[in-house]
Amino acid sequence: MESEKSKEKVCEKIVPFNPGVLIEGLKNSLFGKRVIFRESIGSTNVFLKRLAQEGAVEGTVVVADEQSAGLGRLGRQWFSKKGENLLFSVLLRPDLPANRIFVLTMMFALAGVGTVEDLCGLNAMIKWPNDIYIGQKKVGGILTECSVLGGIVQYVVLGMGLNVNWNPELEQNLLYATSSIFGETKKRIARETFLCNILKKMEMYYEKADEDMKESDGLFQMWNEKSLVIGKKVTIESGKERVEGEVEGVDRDGALILTTTGGQRRKFVCGDVSVKMNL
Hints:
By secondary structure, the chain is of the alpha+beta class. The protein has helices at residues 4-12, 19-25, 44-53, 102-120, 181-185, 191-208, 217-225; strands at residues 35-38, 61-64, 86-92, 124-127, 131-134, 137-149, 152-162, 233-238, 241-250, 256-260, 265-268, 272-275.
């Protein structure tokens, strides 16, 4: 059995991110046009939104080893150990009406869970609206931000934080059940390989969809199959409301469809969902 001392030594090993490996792996890819790497940055999303406003090309990727002001949903902060996880954002310029943006978030999430499965053999799931889970533990999150003019999308920035080589066992006072690829497999993985795989999957999904995203039926089916909450009894907190019920599904605009305990059928476009566990 591995001693605690040797275990800690392995966990402390940090391999610097090599952007050259990523660029080589993304040759001829939409996401290989412009790759920007920063050892430390405030937020990859904030940085890329500024570049988008300045006319950055579609497919631009920003990767960081550390974020000093990483963003999560609802204005929360995203924390990550330096040099251990994936922190990145990508820029898209789809010809889409604003109410179809969720399809891009869906693609991004599916690319993330698909890569976890392909490279690690783990059954990753999606917790509405944008979290990546393994079992009952969160391993990643997605933040989608956009600019819309006259009802038409000007650009979309998709950001992802994914726990890869971080060891949650060494942490204390975590706010919720959290894990990582290393935490689940006890094996480290090259972050460049992981990111390259995610971006290639995202490109494949993005290219398959037509301008109106009408060819996304297969993606919606995949999303439902990978949903952590569909068919489950949940509690959702949205605004000042706290509602309990069973999740029926997610519609094409990304709204969660819930049958409440009182028998009402309701839709929620945002909120925090807690899955009720059978005791």
